């Protein structure tokens, strides 16, 4: 076992030292240039109203409660946390109980939102050395280590350019039988639910300018580019005067990064000029008071059944224009998709989008954001996506514009989060 002092950078790690550490660690099947990521362990989500979140996850989405923070942990951290799970997807919902806590400080700045992305790694010592070598900014001076619950749990966190979102890396032994130190397990950590949610397919973030985040994924975390797209709604307007009309057109640029070994994918968006500030990406940053995680995509095996039941449970989804479905048969011909096993009228009825090529396709749908769903600006602009893949591993390029325009249409209805409303309500 390597000494912790040997792998934690003091202020600025020396490249030669970290290279020696990496070379001296035992081989755990980690490929050169990779961090050794295994999976997304979960994500932490700060909220004002813990009861509302519990109702949403248990009664609306059909998740199950898998763990609860213990009172000593609540007192130490100043927030209470419940962990909800479905398959391999887990969310820590934390709410402040002390005005001095980081949860309270986060919510003094932002509405409800993602504060922490948590990843499981093969070897934490290796991960620390890898990150130090690449210049990561560590939040923890030492790894947090706990022996118990049948094994060990070790973790360390770094800052990111994604606003106040922290990245945490966890090593747990196979016999470790709890969610994390300071929690009490109350159920199966990978519970099977009635909707058979499988795992988090990808995470999408919005930024004012995305390249610092892309460079973070590439140069700090060792990820590769997977896909990219850019478009502007003015592309379809032949009249230049209309194209430059500030309230009618906007666009985005997006790059997806991934870790090939684990399959973890991150999409990052930025607004695109002209009308930069009119983009729904820019509006998200206004509503969130900075960059952040816009949505999390949950993989499901049979999307139509899930969506139908979620509608019955009063879950709200973004509307899709009728024109999308009238043009879909032609698009499917062009994309050579001939094996769709669901009627297009059924997709239209539920608002599900389709994309793919060569008889490989995906089906996806997007919930309305939390602020709209709960009619509360403090609930924030975060939302969930549901996605079913039938051999297509893309990101719904043909649906990107439909999603973009649907979100902007929702914003135009007057559901935008107002900064003064959030600050006023936070004080009440």
Describe this entry's structure for a reader.
- The chain is of the alpha+beta class and 428 residues long.
- The chain has 2 domains: 4-185, 2,3-Dihydroxybiphenyl 1,2-Dioxygenase, domain 1 (Roll); 200-427, 2,3-Dihydroxybiphenyl 1,2-Dioxygenase, domain 1 (Roll).
- It is built from 14 helices and 17 strands.
- The chain has a 9-stranded mixed sheet with strand order 6-7-8-5-1-4-3-2-9. Strands 11-12-13-10-14-17-16-15 form an 8-stranded mixed sheet, sandwiched between helices.
- Strand 6 (144-148) and strand 7 form a beta hairpin.
- The model is unreliable at 1-20, 238-244 and 415-428 (pLDDT under 50).
Give the gist of this structure.
The chain is of the alpha+beta class. It contains 14 helices and 17 strands. The N terminus and C terminus are likely disordered.
Highest-level CATH class of the largest domain: Alpha Beta
- Looking at the structure, the CATH topology of the largest domain is 2,3-Dihydroxybiphenyl 1,2-Dioxygenase, domain 1
Question: Would you identify the CATH H-level superfamily of the largest domain?
Answer: 2,3-Dihydroxybiphenyl 1,2-Dioxygenase, domain 1
User: What percent of residues adopt helix (DSSP H or I)?
Assistant: 25-40%
The averaged pLDDT comes out at 87
Main sheet summary: 9 strands, mixed
Write down the overall geometry.
Answer: globular
Structural class: alpha+beta
Radius of gyration (Å): 22 Å
Q: Record the strand order, biggest sheet.
A: 6-7-8-5-1-4-3-2-9
Straight-line N-to-C gap: 51 Å
Assembly state (oligomeric): single chain
**Fraction in beta strands:** 25-35%
Low-confidence stretches: 1-20, 238-244, 415-428
| Count of helix runs | 14
- Quickly give the CATH architecture of the largest domain: Roll
Number of domains: 2
Number of strands: 17
């Amino acid at each position: 076992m390597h000494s912790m002092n040997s792998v934690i950078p003091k202020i600025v790690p020396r490249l030669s030292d970290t290279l020696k550490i990496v070379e001296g660690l035992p081989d755990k099947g980690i490929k050169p240039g990779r961090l050794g990521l295994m999976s997304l362990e979960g994500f932490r989500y700060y909220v004002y109203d813990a009861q509302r979140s519990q109702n949403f996850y248990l009664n609306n989405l059909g998740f199950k409660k898998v763990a609860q923070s213990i009172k000593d942990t609540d007192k130490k951290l100043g927030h209470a946390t419940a962990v909800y799970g479905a398959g391999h997807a887990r969310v820590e919902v934390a709410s402040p109980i002390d005005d001095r806590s980081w949860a309270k400080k986060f919510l003094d700045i932002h509405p409800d939102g993602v504060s922490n992305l948590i990843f499981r790694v093969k070897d934490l010592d290796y991960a620390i050395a890898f990150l130090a070598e690449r210049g990561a900014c560590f939040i923890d001076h030492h790894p947090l280590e706990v022996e118990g619950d049948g094994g060990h749990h070790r973790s360390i966190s770094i800052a990111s350019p994604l606003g106040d979102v922290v990245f945490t890396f966890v090593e747990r032994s196979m016999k470790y039988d709890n969610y994390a130190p300071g929690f009490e397990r109350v159920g199966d950590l990978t519970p099977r639910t009635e909707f058979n949610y499988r795992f988090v397919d990808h995470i999408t973030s919005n930024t004012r300018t995305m390249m610092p985040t892309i460079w973070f994924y590439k140069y700090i975390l060792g990820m590769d580019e997977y896909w990219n797209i850019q478009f502007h709604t003015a592309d379809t307007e032949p009249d230049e005067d209309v194209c430059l009309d500030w309230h009618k057109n906007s666009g985005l640029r997006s790059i997806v990064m991934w870790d090939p070994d684990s399959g973890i994918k991150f999409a990052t968006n930025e607004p695109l000029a002209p009308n930069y500030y009119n983009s729904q990406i820019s509006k998200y940053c206004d509503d969130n008071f900075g960059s952040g995680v816009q949505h999390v995509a949950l993989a499901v095996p049979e999307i139509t059944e899930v969506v139908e039941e979620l509608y019955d449970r009063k879950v709200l989804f973004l509307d899709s224009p009728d024109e999308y479905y009238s043009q879909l048969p032609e698009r499917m011909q062009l994309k050579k998709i001939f094996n769709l096993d669901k009627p297009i009228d059924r997709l239209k009825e539920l608002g599900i989008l389709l994309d793919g090529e060569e008889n490989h396709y995906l089906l996806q749908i997007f919930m309305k954001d939390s602020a709209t769903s709960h009619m509360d600006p403090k609930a924030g602009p975060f939302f969930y996506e549901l996605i079913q893949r039938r051999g297509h591993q893309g990101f719904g390029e043909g649906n990107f514009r439909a999603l973009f325009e649907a979100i902007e249409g929702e914003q135009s209805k007057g559901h935008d989060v107002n900064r003064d409303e959030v600050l006023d309500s936070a004080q009440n």
